[in-house]
Amino acid sequence: MGQDFTAIIGYGLGPAVLPTLPHLLSPQESPRLAHALGRVGQVCGRASDADALWYDCNFDVADPEALWPWDWMAHLDNPNGFFIDALGPGAASIGFAIRWWDFVANPAIAGAVRAACRELARTLGGPPRALYVADRWDIASDVQVQRPLDQIIAAMYERAGPPVPTFDALLLNDRRDGDIGWAYYVDDFSSWPDGDEPPSAR
């Protein structure tokens, strides 16, 4: 059904690392992330390639004198349907070639995407959490104004109320007046068991 969605994760590596991110995210440097992204491609019928390299890497210097000199439109694509479309000093906005309802309703897609977000959060040095939200909320704009993850989650609470308590609850709480994309979820990766999949099939 026709809504895209965004995941917001933390970024903790600082501005100096940005030009080297394609190398840091490569299969050679981050094999666990590459495996997780290959799984996303597999369940979504895309590249399914754990060795796929990030491409279209675009880092524009907006103000070389600023504390965060890079333009927020630091864009990296991965053929497995995963892309970083905004990056700030405290958070990254992740987009997907997957619709919101496919993510919410399909356990295989949800498990693969959530596992990939966990590995990307680890790689980018952020806290072990992710915010999943339909694009009706335009949450990526909070990354563009350089808010950290905690502030973005707090702002979402102010706009939409509390998140659903479990990922499964998205299915029960997402519809309003016949439309979708109203509920959101904050994934706490610190509560996950070891392994590639989240603690629930959803």
List keywords for this structure.
alpha+beta; 7 strands; 7 helices; seven-stranded antiparallel β-sheet; 31% helix; 18% strand; 202 residues
Q: Which oligomeric form is depicted?
A: single chain
Low-confidence stretches: 67-73
Morphology: globular
SS field, number of helical segments? 7
Question: In angstroms, what separates the terminal alpha carbons?
Answer: 18 Å
Structural class: alpha+beta
Radius of gyration: 16 Å
As laid out across the biggest beta sheet, the strand order is 2-3-4-5-1-6-7
Q: Report the sheet with the most strands, covering strand number, pairing sense and barrel closure.
A: 7 strands, antiparallel
Would you mind describing this structure in some detail?
- By secondary structure, the chain is α+β, with helices and mostly antiparallel strands.
- It has one domain (5-59, 67-191).
- It has helices at residues 21-24, 31-43, 100-105, 107-123, 140-144, 149-160, 169-173; strands at residues 5-10, 55-58, 75-78, 82-87, 91-96, 129-134, 184-188.
- It has a seven-stranded antiparallel beta sheet, with helices on both faces.
